[in-house]
Amino acid sequence: MKKTYHLCLSGGDEILFRDEEDYNRGFNCLALALYKTGSTGLVESFQSTHSHKMIQTEDHLGFMYTMRQSYSKYFNHKYQRHGRVGEKFHFHLDIVGLHHHLAAMTYVLRNALHHGVVPIPYAYPHCSVNAIFQKEMGKRPPEKLLAQKQFRRFIGKKAEWPPHYKMSEDGVFLRESVLDIVQVENMYTTPRAFNYYMSRKSGEEWEKEQEKDRLEIKPIRLETIELGIKDQPLDKMLIYESGRADFRKISDIDLCTEIDRKIVPKYGKGSVYHLSRSEKQEIGNQLYRQYHIPEAQIRRCLAM
After folding, report:
1. Domains and CATH numbers, the chain
2. Buried-most residue among 92, 253, 270, 282 (CB within 10 A)?
């Protein structure tokens, strides 16, 4: 029997998704793992340093193994590296009860907001927030789609997928064709209620609402969902939740793109993973002088 889980994989001190292609491939690996393991996807969000997803499955370990194996093979080949991608163990949390589902899904969909990446959840492209109540919220799916014979360019030669999966010309499966959006919409009930959840602040009201499920389990909180994620302290996440963040700062994806496409080639190396420690320190000093960004961001983007 399937159970609902919140799953989170962290990169630790390393970037998991360095450019747009990585984000797209990450979701494609999730989509293929859902099909291969007979699991159902609800919502997800991919950040540079970690990824959240809520799925219904009989075997969350098998699902994560399948997804990680596929993405690790792609990532290691692209960046000429070896070894495990991401921390050794993933975090998992059983989700039971309607209001626990709503709280967990909302925190996943607002993940980019809590990390100060975007001012509102709908501005973030690498999650399923814009696939929910798509028509009612005035969202439009891509008009140009790829023929299925072109899918393998973006998912590998041996991949298998169901016939209802659709792919945009950017090479990423449409979230509305992969995830059980109808089930998610039924839990939120209306577009207005969904929009309310996307903008409400964290607090005791959330916890009292979850008591309606009458279950002897702890309420879902922001710190529950973000357990083990190192790049932002909880108090700063709550500040970002109010939309108070400096969105002019350079993001991880922008910094990694500059490193991979402009800086690494100057050193004659095939990947950031081939740079020596002294070369990384030299580049890090240059980036700090240029952008005045935190040392932790520089270190993770340089894989130090």
Report:
1. 3-241 (3.30.70.1290), 252-301 (no CATH)
2. 253
